[in-house]
Structure formats: C-alpha cells, structure tokens
Amino acid sequence: MSEQTIPDVRKSVTVAATPDEAFKVFTERPKDWWPATHVLVKKERAGLAFEPGVDGRYYEWDVDGTEIAWGRVLEWEPGRRVAMTWRINPYWQSIPTDEGASEIEVDFEPVDEGHTKVTLAHVKLHQHGEGAINIFKALDGPSPGETLERFAQLF
Fold first, then answer.
1. Cα 86 from Cα 99, distance rounded (Å)
2. pLDDT digit string (tens) for 67-87?
3. What whole-number distance in Å separates Cα of residue 57 and Cα of residue 41?
4. Does the pLDDT of residue 2 top 70, yes or no?
5. What is the mean pLDDT of residues 106-112?
6. Which residues contact 67 (CB under 8 A, 6 or more apart)?
7. Can you give the pLDDT at residue 5?
C-alpha cells in the first residue's frame, strides 16, 4: 500500500441524543470523553476545548497553562458536522502547523427522534508522510474505538 492510497478510517456509534445534543457534548465537553492517553502536553493536562467556528482551534493545556493545538476547525455546522485538521506526526507528536496534518470529520446523523449516529473519520492520512501507514494501522481497529466508546458512555 503506497502512502497516497492509505484508506480513510471511519467508525461510528449511535447515542441516545438529538444531533444538536450530541454535537454540543462533542464540542463543549471534550474532557469528558477524550481518552486520557491522547495527550500532547508534557505536564498534567488541565483542560481541553474547542473554539467554536471555522478557524477555531481545538487544543489542550497543562497545569502550567502551556497550550498545544491539536488542530484547526475546518467546518463547523452545529448539529450536523465538525471537521478539523489533526496536527500530529507519524510518531504521535505535535506539529505546529497544518502542513503534514491529516483531517478528522465528525458527522451527526439523526436515526430517529431520540438517537443520533455519530461517525468519526480520519481522512487524508497520507498527508502525515513517511510513516503514515503506522497511523492507519493504529486507527484501523474495531469500531467504535476508544474515543467514540468513551463519547457514547456520556449518554
């Protein structure tokens, strides 16, 4: 498999919430569902946040106030979709810009009046360059995966 043909990784979960409610939990309460092992700051993480709207950051900060951006918001459609860059290198370390970043797309689709299918996709993984296949292999496990499993537990 060449670096250019690395497939997207899509996982989904259905939650007992409306699309608007699910979107709010995803974007307003990331510390409640974000896996504790997914950390870029060097010291103890103190918080995680999304800055609402296109070009907002999603970032974390440590107990000393040092911030590291996980990426930049590309699409912000409350109750429907949020997409962002994913600023890591093939060694799971932070990169400072979107150059070399892949993207994450999260879609919120109504199933019925009280349930929403949430699909999280890692796309454009080839943009991580040499070693991107290792990221794909790490992400390409059973659905829903740790992140969406933790998210679903909030409902």
1. 10
2. 999 999 999 999 999 999 999
3. 15
4. no
5. 98
6. 41, 59, 60, 61
7. 83
Write the DSSP string, 32-92: HHS-TT---SSS-EEEEEE--STT-EEEEEETT--EEEEEEEEEEETTTEEEEEE-B-TTS
- In the numeric block, the tokens 């950051």 are attached to 57
Closest CA to 36 of 139, 145, 146: 146
Kindly state the DSSP code that residue 94 receives in the 8-state scheme: B
CB atoms within 10 A of CB 9: 21
**Contact status, residue 107 vs residue 124, Cβ threshold 8 Å:** no
By percentage, how much of the chain surpasses pLDDT 90?
Answer: 89
Domain at 3-40+74-152, CATH class: alpha beta
The pLDDT of residue 143: 83
